[in-house]
Amino acid sequence: MTFGELVRAYLGHYTILTYLGLTAASVGIWLWHPAAALPTLASAMLVMLAYPLVWYVLHRWVLHCHWMFKVPALARVWKRIHYDHHRDPNHLEVLFGALYTTLPTLLLVAALPGWLIGGVGGAAAGFAAGLLWTCFYEFFHCIQHLAYKPRAKMLVMMKRRHLEHHFHDEDGNFGITNFLWDRLFGTLYIRADRPAKSPTVFNLGYTEEMAARYPWVARLSDAEARDMHGGGRRTRA
Fold first, then answer.
1. Cα gap 79→225, rounded to integer Å
2. R_g (Cα) of the chain, nearest Å
3. pLDDT of the residue at 111
4. 170 with 191: CB under 8 angstroms?
5. Would you tell me how many other CB atoms lie within 10 Å of the CB of residue 75?
6. What does DSSP assign to residue 233?
7. Whole-number Cα distances in Å, 222 to 183, 208, 229
8. Which residues in the chain come in under a pLDDT of 70?
9. Which of 122, 127, 218, 237 could form a cystine bridge with 43, CB 3.0-4.6 A?
10. Distance of CA 131 to the CA centre of its chain
11. Which of the 8 DSSP states describes residue 93?
12. Which residues contact 89 (CB under 8 A, 6 or more apart)?
């Protein structure tokens, strides 16, 4: 895959187009009801500084949790936002986050602090910063999963650490572009540090025994398999 093909795959996905459209709308809201320069800058900078930690926390303790698949109302969400991604790490349809989870999260962790800092204009600035930072993360996530070979040493390292998370041991290397919090929390590793491959790297602990006790994710997967077998690959929202 060339860099141009990577960019086209990235920009052609509806989630990225939605983020960019909402960023433009947020800029419009700021122009309609602007905050002062300092609150605007503070709202945007807070999001940019907090984003790596927020992502680490969500990735480690929510996406890799063992409680969501035990709750029928949450099983479908957990399956879509991370289980499917680990089952098929390079599948573009589930490479990006689901809008019905990412957008409410950004409203909470980006727009709300901005509103507390600078009112409507601050909320717009914070939300725009969160959307753009999400686009930044998703672009590097594409580099890490699609058939593109980066040349820069930093990108090669980032891709290697993330692919170890997906193909060797899922209990570590939770960062995407920033592994500071992995280092601070002791979850950063290289493959040589953990010679044994995790038996749950592709199922996140949703084993056959767990599926027998909590069958909702398995039933959804079976239904999708029947749909694909009977009428072609079904697009997962």
1. 14
2. 19
3. 97
4. no
5. 21
6. P
7. 38, 13, 11
8. 227-237
9. 122
10. 12
11. G
12. 145, 163, 166, 167
Determine the Cα–Cα distance for residues 122 and 117; give it in Å rounded to an integer. 6
pLDDT at 230: 63
Q: CA torsion angle for 191, 194, 197, 199 (degrees, to 10)?
A: -130
Q: What is the pLDDT of residues 139-169, one digit of tens each?
A: 999 999 999 999 999 999 999 999 999 999 9
Q: Looking at residue 49, what is its pLDDT?
A: 94
What is the DSSP-derived secondary structure letter of residue 155?
H
Tokens representing 89 are 């790490």
User: Do residues 218 and 211 touch, judged by C-beta distance below 8 A?
Assistant: yes
Question: To 10 degrees, the CA torsion angle through 76, 105, 131, 139?
Answer: -40
- What is d(CA 42, CA 27) in angstroms, rounded to the nearest whole number? 16
In whole angstroms, give the CA distance from residue 131 to residue 16.
9
Contacts 24+ apart (CB under 8 A), 197-202: 197/168, 197/169, 198/168, 198/169, 198/170, 198/171, 200/170, 201/86, 201/166, 201/167, 201/168, 201/169, 201/170, 202/86, 202/87
